[in-house]
Amino acid sequence: MNSFFGNIQAPVDGNFDMSVQVIPAKTQLKCIIEESKWDTYTPEPTNTEPYPVMQTFVKNTWSVLDGDYQGRKVFQKLHVQDENQGKAQRSLQMLAAIDANAGGKIMAAGTMPDDMMLSVSLSNVPMVITVDVWEIGNNSGNYITAVSRAHATQPVMNQSQAIHQATQNVQQQATQQAPAQQQQVQYAQPQQQTAQQLTAEDIDF
Question: What is the pLDDT of residues 13-54, one digit of tens each?
C-alpha cells in the first residue's frame, strides 16, 4: 500500500472524470439540513442593470441520508427578501414548511431569524425533498421543488407518556395561535418551478 495514496491505483489511460452525475428529476430523497445561514449574491451586470444590487437569501445545505445518493449534497437558495414579491412569497412558504417539519421554532419566535436561529431550528431533522434538474447553457444541476416530513414509525407510548405528549401538543398549539403565527402553510400541492424559469441567482453550481 502506498503511504500517501493508500489503495488508489493509477489509471491505465491517465484519464479521470470528477464530474458529479445529476440526480434525475422528480427524485425524492431523505435528507437533513447540515447548514442553514444567510448568504449574499451579486448578479452579473447586464445592459439593463449595469449596477446590479447584491441579493440576500437563506442558503440551506442538504445531505442525503440513504439510498443511491447517500452523502450527496443538495444546495437550496431561498430568496425570502427578493424584490419580486411572488418569488419572495414562494421562498417564505418553502422556509415555513421546512420550519414546520422541524418543529416550528422560527415561526413561533415571530422575528427575522439570524444565522444561529436558522442553524439551531432547522439542522439535523430528517425530511423528504423532491429535486428537479436545471439547465443553463452547458451547466446543469439539481434544485428543490418540494419538502415534506419523513414519516417514521412512532414508538408505542404508555399512559403517562401519552398524557405528557398530549400536554406538550396543547401548549404548542396555544403558542401557535398567537397573532404572529396565524399563517398556515399547506404543501399538498407544492410550488413547482421549471428549469426554464431559473436564473443564475436561483442556483448553486
Answer: 777 665 678 999 999 999 999 999 999 988 888 888 888 888
The backbone torsions φ and ψ at residue 176, rounded to the nearest 5 degrees and listed phi first, read: -75, -10
The set of residues, in sequence order, having a beta carbon less than 8 Å from that of 82 and lying 6+ positions away, is 55, 57, 88, 91
Query: DSSP assignment of 40-72, as one string?
Result: EE-PPP-SS-SSPPPEEEEEEEEEE-SGGGTT-
What confidence score (pLDDT) does residue 56 get? 95
pTM for the structure as a whole: 0.67
Calpha distance 28→74 (Å, rounded): 12
Phi-psi region of 73 (alpha: psi -120 to 50; beta: other; left: phi over 0): beta
**pLDDT tens string 101-112:** 999 999 999 999
93: Cβ contacts below 8 Å, ≥ 6 apart: 185, 191
Amino acid, single-letter form, for residue 45: P
Nearest Cα to Cα of residue 151 among 43, 30, 42: 30
Count of CB atoms within 10 A of residue 185's CB? 16
27-187 is a CATH 2.40.50 domain? yes
Cβ–Cβ < 8 Å for 103, 35: no
Query: 73 - beta bridge partners?
Result: 63
Q: 113 burial class (0-12, 13-18, 19+ CB within 10 angstroms)?
A: buried
Cβ distance 52 to 44 under 8 Å? Answer: yes
